[in-house]
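[Q] Does anyone have a clean C-alpha cell version of this?
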Amino acid sequence: MPTAARIVVTRIGIHHIYILVMEMFSWRSERTCSAFCTMPGVAAITAPLAANQGLYNRFLAAGLRWGVIRPNKDFAWQIRSLFVLCVAVTGAHGAATVKRSILSVQTVPSHIGLALVRARTAAGRARPPARRGGPRSRRCRRRAARSGQRAPRPAAAAARPRAARSPPA
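[A] Here you go.
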C-alpha cells in the first residue's frame, strides 16, 4: 500500500476511535453535546444508544487497522476497500439524515482513501491472481462423470497442438 493511502486509512481509523470515545465514554459532557448538537437532558436519555453507535465505530476502526497491518497484500486491499467503503456509505447517510458537516468530516476523507487504495489496485500491483478451476469447473466435471460423458479437458491439454494430444480414453 502506498504511504499516502496508509496515512489516509490510518487517519480515518483514528477519527473513528475519537468518535468511539465521544459516544461511549463522554456522551454527557459539554464538548460532546456541542459537537453532536444535543442538549444535556437528551444526552442523558440517549446515552445507551450513543454507546451502541460508538461500538459500531470501534468495529469500523478495527477493520481499517486490520487492512493497514495485514501482511498479505492480495487480501489487504480488499479489507481496506470494504471498510473505507463502509465509512463512505455511513458518512453519506449521516450527511443526508443528521448533519451536513458529516460529509466533509467523514465522507470526503473516506472517498480520498478509497481512491488511493483502489489506485494501487488499478495499477495491477495488488490485485489477486485470477482463479482457475474453481468450484464451477469441478461441479461440471462431476456432472459429466455421472452422466457418462467425457469430462472437459484441462486448460493445459486444450492449449497443446492437436497432433500432440493423446487420443480420448
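[Q] Thanks! Anything notable?
[A] Residues 3-122 form one domain.
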